[in-house]
Amino acid sequence: MDFYGINPAVLIASLMVASVPIMLAAIGELVVEKAGVLNLGVEGMMIMGAVCGFITAVHTGSPWAGFLGGAAGAMAISLIFALLTQVFLANQVATGLAMTLFGLGLSSLMGQGYNGIKPPAMADVPLGPLEDIPFIGRAFLSHDAMVYVSILIVAGVWAVLKYSRVGLILRAVGENHDAAHALGYKVRRIRVLAILFGAAMAGLGGAYVSLVRVPQWTDGITAGAGWIALAIVVFASWKPWRVLIGAYLFGGITVLQLNLQAAGARIPVEYLSMSPYLITILVLVIMSSGKGRAGLNAPAALGQNFHASR
Amino acid sequence: MFTLEKRPTPSKAWAWGTPFLAVALTMVAGGLLFAALGKDPFAVVRTIFWDPLFGEFARYLRGQLLVKAAPLTLIAVGLALGFRAGIWNIGAEGQYIIGAITGAAIGLAVYPTESRWIFPLMILGGAFGGWVWAMIPALLRTKFNTNEILVSLMLVYVAETILSKAATGFLRNPEGMGFPGSRSFSSYAAAGNPELIAGTGLHWGVVAALIAVIWAYVLLQRHLLGYQIKLAGQAPRAARFAGVSADRLVMLCMGMSGALAGLAGLFEVTGPAGQISIDFNVGYGFTAIIVAFLGRLNPFGILLAALLMALTYVGGEMAATNLGLPSSAIRVFQGMLLFFLLAVDLLSNYRIRLAGAAREVR
Amino acid sequence: MKRRTLLASAATALGLTLSGTAWAEGMDKVKACFVYVGPIGDGGWTYQHDQGRLAVIEKFGDKVDASTYQESVPEGADAERVLTQMALGGCNIIFTTSFGYMDATNAVAKKFPNVKFEHATGFKREAPNVSTYNARFYEGRAVEGLIAGRMTKSNKIGYIGSFPIPEVVMGINAYYLNAKKVNPDVELTVVWAYTWFDPAKEADAAKAMIEQGVDVIASHTDSTAPLAEAAKSNGAVIGFGQASDMAEYKPSPRVTSIIDNWGPYYIDRVGALLDGTYEQADVWAGIKGGEVLIGEITEAVPAEVKAEAEKLRDDIASGAYHPFTGPINKQDGSPWLAEGQTAPDGDLLGMNFYVEGISGDIPQ
């Protein structure tokens, strides 16, 4: 089962962990964008989630409380975005970017004094004998709970968007806010809720970085994961399951390139380290040029502010 | 409660007034933050906004504002053209890097030849490099309908990898004892971009930025292409009926913004930065996106917005060094300023009325 | 009064160069300033420089003002501006703590002949008021290598490299040679992270190595993420603190550490300025000068290995042993150092080759 001395089961296991933060942040942003809001501040929300989650976990001693704290911290900062874009009708692109700048600074201020502390550890989900199943046990069944929670969230978002009335309203708001408004839906309120949901997911993703993936707090710990999450939403052409695929693909290639290096593959390192981005572009080109014309799947009102003229 | 009523045309008075209002609000909110951090809020605010312009070292620092604002202006002016047409190039950082590398490579290839043609050639090379890097997302968008936001962003990371390879490999200074980084352009006159007047911060990049502002203004106001750009952004369907080729606009707008970002990179690497190094890029490409919007996508507005951003950088640095403020507090302060600028923009585009009054009017 | 002197020094900066002999008599009070490449909260490189700054304050008290520093200064134009501001602001001595500040330091130093500049890890001293200083981190790598060679059970040891530059290559070679010396079967795996600081990526790199059977990991990147990853192995994998002690991972996986200890040097230079003995210098000290500290070797290391490592440390300090002592061949088999010959500093500072026995290529 080995190639280049890399065990696929182990590779799958590590890519599942590596993908959690970007998957969570991306599924949150997908909901936001489905509602017609383009929030480029994912990185800022993630890092706020990372620092708030870390601080909460250290003081309560519970990683679960930490995840809640992370989600809350990211939601708090996203309220600024919601206020500016939904009430003050400010440009969404610029506001999102400003939020990233703000979040990076604020997280660094808040995190002073938390460097070099170990957060409480998060245990793997005990699955007993299931973990001993050859291959499957190692690859899929020996993870911490957030790995599974993140997949469940993706499934939940998919089901809600596809089957529920809430999903229908959300999509209506994102496709044509004037029509949705005419039908009596509260466009602004729905968008604010979507923004808060997206922030909560980004916060969970950020907290996963500081509590499980790296476990520690240092300035700038999310190191650009928020931008990757944004890319994955577009890559997924706004379809929830494709977010899962996109996150696994990106996480997988990132892990694989380091594994290939460690295994001594004679491929120049610089090509390996740019490969996740190049392959993402390549896959995107293939997908968007196919029959489905995935690039046209963007919500029609994405990035446009809504102002009820009546 | 109040309601908003969209103005038929943005208010001129508020368009000039809002930036000052935003700065004032930021001073208040920032002052509270600094006070919470145990610093004298008045001293900090004065250090950020007053000292770089009129303080005792202003003669030096005013020039530094130009150094900082020039690349932001060059990049943002290009981006604004695309943004106006609904074309989202957010990978200017990558185009900036590649422009710097290609331009620098020309100069380094002919080292140590002294000729007056070298620097102009490098300028062309820098613009070409940025243009090529922007053509990748442009072509993928027009040929395969691939989203340009994603592709241009991904190419930033690719460009960063190429940059570190350039600094440690193919552009490394052969006399640098194996250390990363290219030869220094400050000691290679034919390829250098020194201050034109010593102590003023004025270099060719500043000149280019001013030219770009005027050029973009003329393009938008007086040229058919400028009209097409604005039409495509405001009414895509109408633009199509009017015979505007969407593909052509994508190629032109991406190309122009890429070339300008490449130019910014070239002027930076030959002048203020001085050499290709692993960490040569400092985020101008991303900051320029904010600058473009702060300037309301208007070339002259962008120039002012870039100067304001530069002021917060330079003044913020002074506050950090002289008053012991953490650098993260400065970033929070910049974030606040942007938030307030964006929020008060409302006043120039909308009229605020009390709900009761609005009903009476109807 | 103070404003006046500041204005005078500003005038100096803007062209009216005065000759700078005033310092020879010593000073009553020194203003020492610091430029950092990262945030103090990085827990590694910048944090340690800041510890050095605090050591200066502790040592000299009222005689020194070391309250001025600037975090996260990008290299290039921004560094030049920050340096100029500091010089204008009355700093007497400025420590620039990253390689990338080399040209900026020299350029500003020429404009301010009365201010002393101290540049870490560089080699350019274009003005008489620029000194350079560095630490022989490779000496610490040798101690790590010995422990790695003795402790590995799989005979696979790993090294997370940041960028392929001489400083890192030197560390890799020292680590490998001294592991090989005590364990001829040892194999080295190098992963290039192409970053100084990206905790998630560093964790992934460590994980990838662990999956390849590597059980001792040294890293040249700044975060504790590789140690955190090793900690998940329940003692099967060990690693080392890098730049700072990283004591929170004691006793295992962190079995020892290389601590960048800049305090002694900073105290030395500021002290020299105070008493008038300051001279331009190029200092490359190591374990001997106290710049490189070997952190406590924990009980996870057997007593005899610990004793051996401590002896190696002491031999390096006393000069009895040099981590690069011939015969050593380059990777391609061509001879580098003859029997008994030790590496000249020039070779080390420009090192761009692996020694014999390491597989893989240095990215070029």
Q: Can you walk me through this structure?
A:
The complex is a heterotrimer of chains A (310), B (362) and C (364). With 310 residues, chain A is mainly alpha-helical. Chain A is 69% helix and 0% strand. Chain A has a single domain, classed as ABC transporter involved in vitamin B12 uptake, BtuC, CATH 1.10.3470. The longest helix of chain A is centred in the N-terminal third of the chain and has 27 residues. Chain B has a domain of 227 residues. A two-stranded antiparallel ribbon of chain B has the order 1-2. With 364 residues, chain C is an alpha/beta fold. Chains in contact: A-B, A-C, B-C. At the A-B interface, helix 3, helix 4, helix 10 and helix 12 of A face helix 6, helix 7, helix 12 and helix 14 of B. Chain B: It is a multi-pass membrane protein.
Q: Total number of helical segments of chain B?
A: 15
Shape of chain A: globular
Radius of gyration of chain A: 20 Å
Low-confidence stretches of chain B: 357-362
Number of domains of chain A: 1
User: What is the spatial order of strands in the main beta sheet of chain B?
Assistant: 1-2
**Helix-strand sequence of chain A:** HHHHHHHHHHHH
Query: Rough shape of chain B?
Result: globular
Average per-residue pLDDT of chain A, rounded, comes to: 87
N- to C-terminal separation of chain A? 65 Å
How would you state the average pLDDT of chain B, rounded?
87
The helix-and-strand class of chain B reads mainly alpha
Q: Work out the helix count of chain A.
A: 12
Question: Biggest interface in this structure?
Answer: A-B, 48 and 48 residues
CATH class of chain A: Mainly Alpha
What name does the CATH topology of chain A carry?
Answer: ABC transporter involved in vitamin B12 uptake, BtuC
- Termini gap of chain B: 17 Å
Per DSSP E runs of 2 or more residues, the count of β-strands of chain A stands at 0
- Computed over alpha carbons, the radius of gyration of chain B is 22 Å
Pfam families (chain C): Bmp (PF02608)
Domain ABC transporter substrate-binding protein PnrA-like (chain C): 29-315
InterPro entries (chain C): ABC-Purine-Binding, Peripla_BP_I, PnrA-like
Organism (chain C): Albidovulum denitrificans
